[in-house]
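Quick one:
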Amino acid sequence: MKKIFTLFVAAVAAVTMSAKTAESGSCGTNLTWAFNASTGVLTITGTGPMTDYSTDNFAPWYAFNDKVTSLSIEPGITTIGDYAFFGLTKVANKVAIPCGVTAIGKYAFDMCVAMPSVYIPYGVKTIGDNAFAVCAALKYVIVPYGVTTIGQNAFAFCTGLKDVSIPATVTTIGDHAFRNCTALEYLLDFASTPQPINAEVFEDVEISQCRLCILVEAEAEYESHPVWKGFYVEARSYHGVTPTDHILSYDFAAGAMTVTGEGSLPDAGNNLYSVAQHPSVLDPRFQVVTLTLSEGLTGIGSYYFSNYWSLTSVTIPEGVAYINTGAFANGYSLRSVTIPRSVEKLINF
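Output:
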């Protein structure tokens, strides 16, 4: 009798073990996921595209949707799949999508209501329908240079969203993309020609109370557009002259910035934005991919080119003698820096 009872207990234990929900597995050909129940962290690692999911086939970690409190997406991933993190309502960390990702699928972060910020890297081309819908805790969104499409309902019902920056490369903004973004205060659009939109894009948003910051050269077209003209339009010029008489000029359509002039660029002070902070969307440096420094430059001051999140490469011209601390700090996309023989002092740039 004792033997039979022992076998029965063993059988129940085996059934219990097999019924236990897996806490790790595959989410793409070369991608894996793991959930740490003790920390609440969901981690995605590997290389290549993520599997697309749906309401008929939720992501495997959806079983822990009320337990995941932090999301870590590691470098190497190239797409964020449809419905990937749908309904993870307890995720409360500041999420950084890694460089190398080219597309954010539909409903990818839909209903991540507690997520306070998300870093979208240079290289992303499309933001899918409903990708960030009902992310009520989001306060700002910087859409990086290179994105061409913001899908339907992409940021709908982001009721805490105050500031949005849109690059010149965006040509399509889907219907209801910013529907019910009732807290919207600043919208910065770097396009020289207004994107073709209808009123449904900003449905239930008091656009007359929202500042639309545009390029001076585009003012006439925005002011005559049937929807865009409804904003409080504010035209800006970003070209300027520094206190050291260096000329800064931008070509936002090309994602380019040029610095001309002689002598050294001054120390700028440690005023770093990280992906965990709330930067000003009015800052043009987030849209710069290429930086040209002219001959005649002799030095680059501390933190002068910090926070150029989308900057990919820099060639320092011959004649520069020093590059001070943090000159290119927080260059998240920076992959190549060419340093000339003339540089004599290089301090943790």
